[in-house]
Write a structure and sequence with these properties.
By secondary structure, this protein is of the alpha+beta class. It is about 20% helix and about 30% strand. The strands form 8 sheets. A 6-stranded mixed β-sheet has the order 7-4-6-5-9-8, with no helix packed on it. The structure holds adenosine monophosphate (AMP) and magnesium ion (MG).
């Protein structure tokens, strides 16, 4: 088993630890559902007209029909519909029990004020039947589901005005590096703007974590240790960028060891982004991501994100599809899983974009997917199928 597979196995073995809470339905978007959602009614709850038109008995469809009344959505017929009779009915209204057909306004000839005829003898029935979408007692959403837009509608339809979800985890992001200046500054010689914080914080926000603080610190062991300890008190997660490797000023692994953290892994087997730690102590979790922006992006998407979702109890399965190559990819060393920013074009083929490696964050802004080049594979030819992950 290679390192990335080992990490995936370890992620699979993590148990959800983060607490749950009840929230109002309107606050449930982008949370992890922590209860099964069960239908309290059949859906639709009555035979519903799918069209604006006329409801009648199908056996009378060829005949002149007498219009008895008009039924709006929300109303029930007040009369019995007999032979050669009908009601004018609106979409969403309850179809009277004697009727088994609704013909559309578009298929209608109005003969007089209260007489109508269907001009399409092959009309569909145009009825949404009681319980055809789901039945009372059906499990509509399972615990662990990430609540996206359609799930909001399902929750509302099932009467979940309050929803049991995972609490939003708290996180502090610490960008480390004595060369870093903030985006508002002009770097002096040897300095570089801190682009990781904006990137990682946005990745965390998209997952709906609460950003408690955002720090940018020089590579000073004592300062980093003090700030780290403070962050641990207030957060469920701490995310470092930079200083995760083996350079003289890469203090993160050392600090974690000194603080007694259990290190789950210290490298990923991925290129770019090999040095990365994930560690835990007393229910607090720490990611040490690379300093190079593409590396930290990839580490977050492929590893940190599944870890966080697992700890939240979410069933997270990112889309990974096979698509044909529009170019030949070649590399010398095939000792790691390579992740390459690419574009999936309108024909579904994988196209190349300029990419110079782990610092070339600009490349990602043109990409719409990440190509996977498996460990041991040094060449993928044009027209061969390869795995891509849409971004
Ligand atoms: P490190 O992981 O600390 O060895 O940093 C690797 C490379 O990433 C170096 O070239 C750093 O200057 C760069 N780097 C580190 N942190 C950041 C950051 N927050 N934003 C942009 N580049 C960074
Ligand atoms: Mg550094």
């Amino acid at each position: 088993m290679n390192q990335f597979e080992k990490i995936q196995q370890l992620i699979g073995s993590l148990s959800p630890v983060l607490p749950t809470e009840k929230v109002q339905l309107e606050d449930a978007y982008n949370r992890v559902l922590q209860e099964n959602v069960v239908a309290d009614l059949d859906m639709p709850p009555f035979n519903k007209s799918a069209m604006d038109g006329y409801a009648c008995r199908l056996e009378d469809i060829a005949n002149e029909l007498e219009i008895l009344e008009v039924i709006n959505a929300g109303k029930i017929a007040s009369v019995k519909i007999g032979k050669n009779q009908c009601v004018k009915i609106m979409t969403g209204a309850a179809v009277p029990p004697e009727c088994d057909c609704v013909f559309m306004v578009e298929d209608t000839e109005e003969l007089s004020e209260n007489k109508v005829r269907c001009t399409n003898p092959k009309t569909k029935k145009n009825i949404c039947y009681l319980g055809e979408d789901y039945k009372k007692g059906d499990v509509l959403l399972k615990k662990g589901k990430l609540i996206n837009v359609p799930q909001m509608a399902v929750l509302a339809g099932a009467g979940y005005a309050e929803v049991l979800v995972s609490k939003r985890p708290k996180v502090t992001v610490i960008a480390t590096g004595s060369e870093l200046v903030s985006p508002s500054e002009t770097p002096k010689p040897g300095q570089i703007r801190n682009s990781n914080s904006s990137q990682v914080i946005t990745q965390l926000r998209k997952m709906n974590l609460e950003i408690v603080a955002e720090l940018m610190l020089v590579d000073d062991y004592k300062l980093l240790t003090e700030s780290f300890n403070k962050a641990l008190e207030l957060n469920d997660f701490v995310v470092f960028t930079g200083g995760a490797s083996v350079g003289d000023f890469d203090f993160i692994p050392e600090i974690l060891k000194e603080q007694g953290f259990q290190i789950y892994w210290d490298h990923t087997g991925i290129k770019p982004g090999n040095p990365m730690t994930f560690s835990e102590k007393d229910g607090k979790f720490v990611f040490g991501l690379s300093g190079n922006p593409v590396s930290s992006f990839v580490q977050f998407e492929l590893i940190a994100k599944p870890v966080i979702y697992k700890l939240l109890g979410a069933n997270y399965a990112p889309l990974r599809i096979k698509a044909p190559m529009n170019f030949t990819y070649q590399r010398k060393k095939a000792n790691r899983l390579a992740i390459i920013p690419v574009v999936i074009d309108e024909n579904g083929a994988i196209s190349e974009i300029p990419f110079h490696g782990s610092a070339h964050i600009n490349a990602l802004s043109y990409a719409n997917a990440l190509l996977e080049v498996p460990l041991g594979v040094s060449c993928i030819h044009t027209d061969e199928l390869a795995y891509v992950r849409p971004l």
